[in-house]
Each structure stands twice: as structure tokens, then as C-alpha cells.
Amino acid sequence: MHTDLAPEVLSDAAWWKSGVYSSVFDWPLLLRAGPFQRSVEVPERGIKLIVEWEGEEPAWAAPIITALGETLALPANWDSYSACRVNLECVETAFKGLCSVMRSDTLSPTVVPTVHGGVQLEWHARGIDLEIDISPTGRRYVSCVDRQGETEWEGELSFNLGRLHEVMSRLSYHR
User: Fold this and answer.
1) What is the maximum span of the chain, computed from C-alpha positions, in angstroms?
2) pTM of the entire structure?
């Protein structure tokens, strides 16, 4: 989970490591970090998404786990224009990424499937439009428009996360 002492500069690999561990075996996806547990089954694909971690459940966790499960349940051609099924690794990456930057009181993003099998996380609140796109190729792209701060930025999600932590703080109930 988010810590106010998090460094502002991290590698991609370090940013996506959040203390939520995962393994995929016989199609269950297990994201684990402690005794708390919530699960969602996706029978259409033979997947059971199980999430575990230490401490109290953040307010955003239940709706995100449900939304990620729903995106995994989408069939191929879900948009009737040949869209791909959502990639399991994109779902795992999205959840791990959220765990590493969200505070317990951060507003939940909307989970949007992409036509190429990726996942997009979107926040449109408090004068902020933040979108993080996770593609099956491993690309993570962020776009942010902050009308209150009158700033706009976008690019590959990589080393300097200071801006992202600042935006997440503004998307939290207790700043």
C-alpha cells in the first residue's frame, strides 16, 4: 500500500512490486500479501482471482477486484469489432500497480478493457482526469490533466513517480 515515505524515483520493476505477490497455476491468479482475502470467480475462463494482504481492506479494493473479474469474463469480440479477451497478466499488473500507489482512502478508478486485451484505469474526479493504460505488450502509459493545478502530462510510466503520488493524494479523501 501507499506510504508517505515512498521514494519519488523508482524503476519500473520496483514501482510495480507492492508487497502483493502473485503466481498463476492452473488458471487461478493469486495475489497475496497477508491474511485478508477476497475472491472472484470467472467460470467462463476457468479463473479464480484470489487477493490476500495484511491489515484492513482499503475502500477501493472490493470494487476493483470485482471490476477486474468482470473484465476477465468478457469474451473475445466483446465489442462486436473483434476485440481481444482481456489478458490475465494485465489484470495482475493493474492490481499490483494500484496497491503500490493508492492510499486506503483513494477514490477507486474505473476499470476499462481495451480492444487489444489490456486494461485502462481511469479517474475523472476533483478536476483531475488520470488514465493509466496497461497493454499486453508490457507498456504502461499514463496521461493526466489537472485542471485545478493547471498541469497536463503524459508518457511511459517509469522512473519518476512523484507526480503520480501527488495526483493520488489529491484523489484521496484525507489529504
Assistant:
1) 48
2) 0.78
